Amino acid sequence: MCRTGQDPPPHAHQGPPPRRGDRSPGDTASDAVFSALLEDDVEELYEEAPCGYLSTLLDGKIAKVNATLLGWLGYTREHVIGKMSFSDLLTIGGKLYHETHFAPLLRMQGEVNGIALELKAADGTRLPVLISSKVKVGSDGTPQLIRTTVTDARDRRAYEAELLRRRREAEEARREAELSRKAEVEARQQAERDRNRLQGVLAVLQRSLVPPTLPQPEGLEAAAYYHTASVDQVGGDFYDLFPIGGGRWCFFLGDVCGKGPEAAAVTSLTRYTLRAAAIHDPDPVTVLSTLNTVLHQHYIGGDPRYCTAIFGTLTPSDAGFTVRLASGGHPPAVLMHADGTAEYLPTPGGLLVGILPNARFSAATCELAPGDTVVLYTDGLTEARIGPDGTRYGDEALLDYATDLAPATADKTVGALTTLLQSFGDGLDDDTAILALGIAPAGSP
Amino acid sequence: MTITGKADGPVVMLAHGFGCDQNMWRLMVPALASRFRVVLFDYVGSGASDVSAWSPERYGSLDGYAQDVLDICRELDLRDVAFVGHSVSAMTGVLAAAQEPERFAKLVLLVPSPRYIDDGDYRGGFSAADIEELLESLDSNYLGWSAQMAPVIMGNADRPELGEELTNSFCRTDPDIAQVFARATFLSDSRRDLASVTVPTLVLDCTEDVIAPREVGAYVHAAIPGSRLVTLDATGHCPQLSAPEATTEAVIGFLAQR
């Protein structure tokens, strides 16, 4: 049997409420007492509490419910008492949660607090609530019934939904960041692979511009070194040494303007033109003139391409070899003598090869005797920056260095110049080729 | 994993269902322990298991849970196991017994359901929309499930069997793991697997159970050849808690039969 708040039992009142006229005006202490006396109706406290109250038997049947909860759900007392179970008030999700979590927890702990569930109102609407339950046990310790309070949790649910939404957004953002980070790593790795592949190709191309191994002519010593400034660029320097019969040899060393694939193409053209021209007529001025014509014709009307080069022949003589060479705009060769002196082999007036239709090239001749070595180089050596102010190494320093070094074999000379180049560090920012040709000193094996 | 009871007794393995952990069995364990070697465990992802071993792929279907059961059997070299599975674990036991029947002597299916969603003439008790709502409610109860919620330390004066443990940590699962387990449970359909059961089987259902209604218990009984059906006078989906004596009695009675 249950009562409504509007029908309080007579024993609930402990006496007639005091009337207002009994109080003296402005007496706040007696105001509080007066108000408290209004709250002496226990049944009304239960029925009209600002939360729902519910008592259920151990099998879930609802035994008692307050007016607040009935009002929220839109049920009448007759509908609910003894007829409905607590789980009948729950949504399907709530039922499962109740069975799998709430009820087991309640049985184990005797109470459960603040579980979020949804109640189903009579009209089918959903009411988000927080549920707290406590098992009432008899004096012998056996559970008798379950008391439950139900708190309106619409605000909290909205807040939770917002939290959940924000969490999902944060997770989404994190996932996206992770994806873009992965894409970035992938792109970097791809770039690295591309770069390695390109460097591989460039290294092969670079090697094709100089002889794979330098030949060693009878009675001569030859040595060469190529410094690659960048693994990402094909340089434009080149050199070669090859026989033309009768104990005679040709050599050349040069520098195509520019870098990269276009420069490499010119280098390749230059190298094969020089070799072909030398077979036809090895005279150095003639060979350079042929190259000039070829380069000039090839690039007329287009991107002008030109180079500097020294071309020479070595002809056996009584003393050793006669060197005859011609230069097109190239730094002069250094001749290191067996007596410890060194000098430039001047080739003044030679023009860049390929610039003008009819270029003039100047020739020079010298004798190589035992212990003498002639050195050809590209301007990467003399243009290297050696000071913090950008001072370049220069022709004078090179001549001094050669003078200190002389006499020296081709091998020793190239070895010493390689060490010199390495000492420049970052100051050496261009490709550099070195070719040394010499005759072993008298008395050596 | 917990092993208790009579060390040389026949083995009874108790497998918890969706939502909780091996604590579900605590009211039955004392009576069982006097006769049997009782093996209790938490599925990976539940209770006190090592969560690092969990993956959504393995535990996205009931096969992953059946593998947990078989893994334990292999590790402990268990044979002639009497397997008692609650709720979804009943189906886990069916799957495990189909894979390695020689491991199992008997199956007890406590409030089983091979398919929660209605399908044609079959009444599982839930519509597809119901189950969708359930899966959503797991999300909306996010704060309630959240492992970050401060647990309450409970004294052990009046419930010594609990010890000084964290209350509310029992039954608490990582929301993501619970979501995967819920999908594996409530979207599964193991009806075809029932006919493959060859070991003696007892089906236990309750007089009133909103999750596994009596007609589902009857369906399982009819589908498993030679099975027995006992309806416990109990309400709710957890008779091992609401009617532990009757449940224990039914289980022991069945296991004692030759």
UniProtKB/TrEMBL annotation, chain B:
One of its GO terms (molecular function) is hydrolase activity. Transmembrane segments: none annotated. InterPro entries: AB_hydrolase_1, AB_hydrolase_fold. Keywords: Hydrolase. The keyword Ribonucleoprotein does not apply. The keyword Metal-binding does not apply. Residues 13-249 form the AB hydrolase-1 domain. Belongs to the AB hydrolase superfamily. This is Hydrolase.
